[in-house]
Amino acid sequence: MTLELLLRIVPAATGGVAWGILGGALPGISPSITMALLLPFTYGMDPTVAIVMLASTYVGAEYGGSIPAILLRTPGTNAAAATVVDGYAMKQQGRAGEALGISLYSGCVGGLFGLAALVLLAEPLSRIALAFTPPAYFGLGVLGLSVIASLSQSSLLKGLIAGVLGLMIATVGTDPVTGQTRFTFDRPELLSGIPALLVMVGLFAVSELLVQVTEPGWEGASERPRIVFPSLATWKRIAVPQLIGSVIGTLEGLVPGGGGSVSAFLSYNEAKRWSRHPEEFGQGSVEGVAAPETANNTVACTALIPMLGLGIPGSNSAAVLMGGFLMHGLLPGPMLFAKDPHVANGLYAGLLAANVAMLVVGYLIMRPCMWLVSRPKPYLTAFIYALVVSGVFAVEGSVFHVFVVLAFGVLGYFLRTAKVPVLPMVLGVVLGFMVESNYRRALVLSGGDHMTFVEDRLAAGLLLTAAMVMVASLARHAAASRANARAEVQ
Amino acid sequence: MNLDLAFGLALLALAGGYYAAAAAIPPSFLDDVVGPAGLPKTYSLVLAALAAVQVVRALVGRRRAPGETAPAAGGAIVDSRIAVTLGIGVAYAVALPWLGYPASIALLLGATAGHMRGGVNRHVIAVAVTGAAAFWLLFVWLLGIPQPEGIWTSGL
């Protein structure tokens, strides 16, 4: 990595963190939406710098979500929901600055721990994946889809439906083997398919806009506290919860579908269990803020491990980051480390810069953040809307694609209303090409013999694992339904 | 009709239309064993099967709890505020090539904010104009991304 690139990465990381904190601080704007809004702006950037900026946005947004959680009792992101419990209690005791300081410091600790895990695990994982043949890549794609669909919170059926819809969207454009056009309806704009960027921006950002239009505004912040970094005594006391949050965040981030919110609550519970002062939890415990905030920032790095190593994004935000890779002509996964190792190294350097810069940026940006959160919702919504449509046109250069984004926004809204998870659909779009092209390539190589998926041990293993995941999910959902039915009868 | 039932039926219709479109893909000399229509047809059949399960579940659920009010497909999802917001976006896309970027984005900002506030006043107009200028500065001047200029410059 050249010094010149490094000198561009640091400001990109800092800018990304600042953008992420601002976005995360706005209730309803998740890290993935914040990243999706930034995607079009990175179009003209150097790919490494663009990826760093997007990943840094994820880092910043996970901290940013704790600001309204502590000050307004409204989590800015799902992962900050666990921080509300003790964070808001601390605010009510006049310790808001202390809570924000613990959140910021713990986020930095978690992020650095997660970065270490990312550096240690991503490349070895990719080396394993380099041994993959087309049948094995097909199996990997199917496994990725099955895991995400099975982790759908609402229902397995709806997760599968969403995944299949995503795969169908991925078939629009030009056939990967014969070059035949499919489902383009004679529109030249659809010849290269529907860009994943439009799907993500529509499903995440536009659908959220449509939801926000119908919901009341959030209350503005009545005070603008100064951040107070932890004292030595507090630092010692939160060390164990931070370790708990880091470990749980690492494990959760590795599992596709696992996310910041699950790890945050798990960490909170475990920190309470291991605490010498469990009675303080819920009453303004510093440990109750440190554990979840460490966990959700750890996940911001470790969720990138399956994406970088295998090319399978395990979370909404990782999927958006993968969209960024694709937009810049990069293919995350095993080939990234072989063909473009400087991108991975640049990303590591950028995440290091982002986690360190977050301490400074988080401190300085507090007041602008609170000003932004206190703006009237109609103006904020209007600006986000303008950002979306401007950004989409900037990338695609076509009014047609603005219509496509709006259409996906409507689809996303209907899916949310029907309680259909969106992540499986995004993954279907992102993985659809990989699944189809490797499936057909495998059959071309085997002369049309489907036994190739059984004879290739890696492929067979991955497909068998996918089947087991689906069966286990079915059993889990069936057990949960029986338990619900019994509870209703009682 | 409850939401889950409507959703299932819509999916069945989508699966049918998608299958028909896939079947209409002409064969090619370059076709492999599966062909360009192979996986799309498979996806549509899988979707149809999943949709059928969804419909059956919705009907069984309705029969088991006839007294319960399930979310209605109509009322839950049709909200005029959403339709208006969407319409503003569509109007922006239609107007963009004609009015150009600054005017179109100003109208989008003003219409969205005005709609959510329940009316347009001088403050909304001021924010819309200022916002449009800021967006033009950001995209066109700072980032150098060309945006439509509209009919205003076509005569020059």
Characterization of this structure:
The complex is a heterodimer of chains A (490) and B (156). Chain A has 490 residues and is an all-alpha fold. Helices cover 74% and strands 1% of the residues of chain A. Chain A has 23 helices and two strands. In chain A, helix 5 packs antiparallel against helix 6 and helix 8 packs across helix 21. The termini of chain A are far apart. Chain B folds into two domains: 74 residues; 74 residues, no CATH class. Chain B contains six helices and no strands. In chain B, helix 1 runs antiparallel to helix 2 and helix 4 packs antiparallel against helix 5. The longest helix of chain B is centred in the first third of the chain and has 27 residues. About 6% of the residues of chain B have low confidence. The chains are: A mainly alpha (490), B mainly alpha (156). The interface between A and B is large, with 56 and 67 residues.
Q: Give the proportion of residues in helices of chain B.
A: over 70%
Strand content of chain A: under 5%
Report the average pLDDT across residues of chain A. Answer: 86
User: Structural class, from secondary structure content of chain A?
Assistant: mainly alpha
Count of beta strands of chain B: 0
Give the overall form of chain B.
flat
Provide the domain count of chain B. Answer: 2
- Tally of individual helices of chain B: 6
- Percent of residues of chain B in beta strands? under 5%
Query: What are the low-pLDDT stretches of chain A, counting only 5+ consecutive residues below 50?
Result: none
Strand arrangement in the largest pleated sheet of chain A:
1-2
Q: Rg of chain A to the nearest angstrom?
A: 22 Å
Q: Can you tell me the overall shape of chain A?
A: globular
Number of strands of chain A: 2
Oligomer: heterodimer
Q: Helical region count of chain A?
A: 23
Q: What is the residue-mean pLDDT of chain B, rounded to a whole number?
A: 85
Give the termini separation of chain B: 57 Å
Biggest sheet record of chain B? none
- Would you tell me the structural class of the helices and strands of chain B? mainly alpha
| Largest β sheet strand count, sense and barrel closure of chain A | 2 strands, antiparallel
